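SECTION: protein entry
WANTED: fold as tokens:
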Amino acid sequence: MIGSEGPDHPRQKNKVYGHGQAEQSFTSALHNGRLHHAWLLHGPAGIGKATLAFRLARVVLKGTDLASPVGRRISAGTHGDLLVIERAKDEKRGRLRAEITAADVRPVQDFLHHTAAEGGWRVVLVDGAEFLNRFAANALLKILEEPPPNTVLLLTSASPGALLPTIRSRCRMLALSPLHERDMRAVLPEVSPDMLSRAQGAPGRALFLAMDSDGSITQLSQKILSGTRLNSDMLAQIERAVRDADGFALLCDLLGEGLASKARQEARLGNVVQAERAARHFAECEAMRRQTEHMNLDKVQAIRQAARSLAES
């Protein structure tokens, strides 16, 4: 999971699946002395953007051998020339904060004002750049406008359209695509073929979906999507499902997936009214999730309202 430490953290990995062409574009620019100062790795959530970003950082810092001293320092997060900016963890709520703040970005200025600790390049990795709030985005923009020499910034984003146009314009874009089936099997050999298929080429999404080990959240989402009116049994299921942040996020994700699929299906059949209705519900579901997580609203009440809206439509 992005943002969590441990053997599955992108920091600990070196092998990248499915993004060889993007890596080649970067390494060719580096070896030919034409490395752009900022790169934006963008694509759907869960396809390995952070893993590739850490791999590129290893290439720049000459730490691709995980067993080497440099490689070990990168894995441990102690390399003096690598600074990672990401959403901090909210210890009270036990989940990642909703935003990357100006305070999170402020260490970059101090980092870049010092000579490279190991005499080479310095790398700033911003994981989840779409979470930069307005103040953090403006602080990063100033750095992108006047980057020091021998410095490269690696930004990842699942929603590049949410970034300031001036940030995007100062980055070289690396578009990443969902993984092919063979790469998905290589990354997650223990995950069932059905789960891999549902993940649509995103290993992170496969692991996310696998949290619903007994299928209860999937069944609940299907009831809500079918327009089933709330009853005591469903209310109890909702309370169990959203007891923690991951359950709420997964239920919202499944609802969004179902509504998006319905919108596409109705559009293909020429049912414009039904397609527009499903698309509207999808937008409402996404907005509900963002607002609930950002403002720490009552998750049970949010899902109840979404279920009522679908039942009444």
Notes: Residues 245-268 form the longest helix (24 residues). The chain has two domains: 10-177, 211-312. Confidence is low (pLDDT under 50) at residues 1-7. The first strand starts at residue 38 and ends at 42.
